[in-house]
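DM between two lab members

TW: hey, do you still have the DUF1285 domain-containing protein entry open?
JB: yeah, one sec
JB: this one, 188 aa:
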Amino acid sequence: MVEPLFQQLQKLQDEFRGHPPVASWNPDLCGDMDMVIRADGRWIHEGTEIERQPLVKLFASILKKEGRHYYLVTPVEKWRIRVEDVPFLVTQAARQGEGSAGEILLTTNTGDVLPLDSEHPLLLKPYGNPPQPIPYVEVRNGLQGRMSRDVYYQLIDWAEPRQPTEPPAKLCQLWLQSKGEEFLLGQY
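TW: and the structure you got?
JB:
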């Protein structure tokens, strides 16, 4: 099942630079593929980790989310896969400038590089046991990435502590600025 899909992907990669237009592809569901994206960012097919990073990047480029489900799609095939949390892990952060003129760039485990901005906002969602608010970012087309621990600590280092303007005013909030936007990183 993976080999014919891989051959289609190679053709698509030659045709498109960057990410193919998966949002416009709506083939019928072919079935469920024994593939899972683990919460730690590893891609597992039939119980074995896919270790070839170019293959992982290729699969990530045709990933699509519809409702709660994730699919690998081509113009003619659609296979449902499992995702334990979100499909991407943000593994690097870089900052140029500070304050409202500054910009934060984030890199995912599959090589996507995106600015922290209004199109790629920071979202706080519960994760772990017990659940704690962790930052996620919109990567593309409804697909999200969770910040790795290293990136989370880097963002905390860059954040500006502020007293909230609305109750409960006892908490301190951490705010990030990037591309003229402000994002709440957390509160304590």
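TW: got it. The chain has two domains: 2-83, 88-187. The radius of gyration is 18 Å.
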